[in-house]
Automatic annotation (TrEMBL), chain A:
<dbReference type="InterPro" id="IPR001952">
    <property type="entry name" value="Alkaline_phosphatase"/>
</dbReference>
<keyword id="KW-0597">Phosphoprotein</keyword>
<feature type="region of interest" description="Disordered">
    <location>
        <begin position="27"/>
        <end position="46"/>
    </location>
</feature>
<comment type="similarity">
    <text>Belongs to the alkaline phosphatase family.</text>
</comment>
<keyword id="KW-0732">Signal</keyword>
<feature type="domain" description="DUF7151">
    <location>
        <begin position="49"/>
        <end position="94"/>
    </location>
</feature>
<dbReference type="Pfam" id="PF23657">
    <property type="entry name" value="DUF7151"/>
</dbReference>
<dbReference type="InterPro" id="IPR017850">
    <property type="entry name" value="Alkaline_phosphatase_core_sf"/>
</dbReference>
<dbReference type="Pfam" id="PF00245">
    <property type="entry name" value="Alk_phosphatase"/>
</dbReference>
Automatic annotation (TrEMBL), chain B:
<protein>
    <recommendedName>
        <fullName>Orphan protein secreted protein</fullName>
    </recommendedName>
</protein>
<keyword id="KW-0732">Signal</keyword>
<feature type="signal peptide">
    <location>
        <begin position="1"/>
        <end position="24"/>
    </location>
</feature>
Amino acid sequence: MKNLNLSLVALAVIGLSACSDGDDGANGTNGTDGTNGADGSNGSNGSTSLIVQTALTIGDANCPNSGVQIDSGIDADSDGALQTAEITATEYVCAPGNTEVSTSEILTSVNNDWFVAGQQEITTARQNWLNATMPNLAASNSAKKSAQSVAAVNASALNELRGSAKNVILFVGDGMGISTVTAARILEGQMQGKNGEEHNLSFDTFPFAGLAKTYNVDAQTPDSAGTMTAMMSGVKTDAGILGVDENVERGDCSTVAGTELITALELAEIAGKSTGVISTARITHATPAATYAKSADRNWEDISDMPEEAVTAGCKDIADQLVNFEVNLEARINGIDVDGIDVVMGGGRRHFLPKDAAYNSADAVSSVEGDRTDGRDLTAEWQATYTDGVYVMDQAGFDAIDAANTTRVMGLFNESHMQYEADRANDVAGEPSVAEMTAKAIDILDNNDEGFFLTVESGRIDHGHHAGSAYNALTDTLAFSDAIAKAVEMTDMSDTLIIVTADHGHVFTIAGYPKRGNPILGTVVGIGSEEPSTASDGMPYTTLGYTNGRGFKNLGTETDADAGYGEDITAGRFDLTDVDTASSGFHQESLVPTSSETHAGEDVGIYAYGPGAMLVNGTNEQSVIYHIMDFAADLTNKANAAQTN
Amino acid sequence: MKLSLPLSFMLSSLLITLSSAAEAQCELSPSNLQASYQLTSSDNSPNLSSKNSSHTSQLNLWRQGNTVAHQYPQTDITESWFLLNNKQIKPTRFFDHYQRGIEYQPGEVVHGKSEHDWSYRYQFISDKLISQLTLSAETGKGCERQQVLTQTSTNSKIELVWLPELQLISRFSWTKNQGKHQTHEQWQLTELSHDANKITAFFKQLNHYNMTDYADIGDDHSDEFLTKMVTLGFVEHGASGFYDTEGKAISDGHSH
């Protein structure tokens, strides 16, 4: 302790004058003042006052950020030190608190790239939110706004958000569950020479995301018909049925009347927007069909697939409903005038052609390509109805489409499903990629000033998984990501809402403890090791695998996952020591033997970009996607307005 | 036409109405026919409980244009292949008892084998294998012309009686010896028909089956047939082809 004698105060002793005694009498007059006596002797010295300053370190109870404690008192015992008992006052002078931490003080955090990237993500997320919810505020110094004014602006902006999306594009990766997105991201990164895990697919960078619960009304693990109906109509329904509610009994035509749901695509049509449906599966397959068809059974793709009683009862097959979409919609809803779906592209030509070899296309892969048993050629009927329309069936026809001057296209590029992306080069007459179809569709649809509504399905991700081929599922996911990137590139986020999601997941896992950058299609190699990890059976195992399905296949360079269906079911473990698990023909092991790998009941991601994207957050019923699209593009109100005009 | 007579006699009957000019060349189309074979295999392996195991089955070959079908009556399964203009081959498998079928993409691998050799499915025996055999005799004219082709090695012997005009096996035998163990397989043509109505009716019946694209098998687990299809008696590897002395398919170098 440091003692300081700041001052010494001397006390003066003042002498008093004396008076003589006498009888009591009248008081005499006061005598004159006597002379001052001699000065008394000096008094003894007074006590010393002491002040003691004590430096306080960071964390002190009174000065958390450090400072000085000032004790003062009389040095009663004159020992020159201020004893505790002598302290009569204590004051503190505290240092101000630190509002910033220097990089030198927390080197292990703020100088870390992950930490910096995380900070930037917060900044980006905040800006995304401001841009989405209160664009006017975001442009000003938002920090100066009071909470009250922010809330007011927020509410106002939210109200203005309705209808702000002129265009809507819904991308559905069939079977593209969370693990598929993760594995595809890693694969694409590794194909670019990265470790992979840090890479982003095109929609990974979308500003808003949430989760969707995928169950059907009657099924814990869903199918595409029920899930896409939920997304397109806002109503969850049963598995296996399209565009109708849960009151329909699957396969029973007589139960359909009165259960028909209206879809977002139909609302967009009524509202005067251009509309389009794209799929790499058959265009009559469940996911694309849920945008335009009402059917008691997803399998009624053409009339030959329907039971006689359903045909007699007046139910129409799905291909018929696509070609006659315009007249059917106008018949169902009074007072509307629509012009039909403008762009239709996918596979499934067989359901549009008669079962007669005379109608075979140039790239037919069957002796009789068509399946229709009613003798109708729906492609001809479509062309007769839409004389301005362009019908194409191969790459050359697709390439020849002049998007700027074309208003209507029907492209049926395969007898059945279109090819897996990895197998596309093997197509007989050639067919476009999903990215090429997306770009062409946008080029055509955006000629309408009222905007457009487009759905794009990557249908064969699902098929790759069903066959137990991660290679095909993931390479189709990458092609799908490319299509989404193309849509982002070709549209303006200020007026186009893009939602990317899946209808359901698969029992597809990313397992074990592979080290960073380990080939995602390879066997597990642990951290710090160069040799494959082995299971308790002594054999290596792949990172990717399936809970059920047909199991291990080693088909070498085969790029068609469905080749696995020609092989026996081989669930369980196999020695993969000398197997190239990254080859296109490798099918992952499965645990439970089933005729094909199955869907999963897990949630799927919803990724959103553009006006209304901020409505995507949290965990939702899958049907929320319809409501977000409806809100962002104000489809119902615009359709109602068109109906009454 | 049901035949139990020697093939030469059968062909003579078929051609008896042909003109003399036609005798020099065959006017019957190899691309529209139905042929029935009796398949006999025997095995005297000392490991078998029955020292002389023998098995007989029937196999029907159907051709119509660029489509060929192999019908297995014992298992109620028919396999069919369609040759595309670009030479790709599209397989289809029919389950006759269920009147259901599974369609595959052209060129895809079924049972580990990618279809590239049309002759193998069209004739049961590939052109490549035929080219490796030695012509030992040739008789007849026109549709009757037949060749005897053989290949003999230390442990095996192959003999093929071949009808080149019809691109058809008349008889095929293969004997393999391994010590005291001998296996023998023989295919014998028993019936040949060019009845267009019969052939058309056969393929028309197949075309009316309820077909499923192989890729859709996983879509619908409510369909019991699809769920169980893999246990319904898929044709085993190489059932419609021949094997070399190592037991490998000897169609054209493909191995299963």
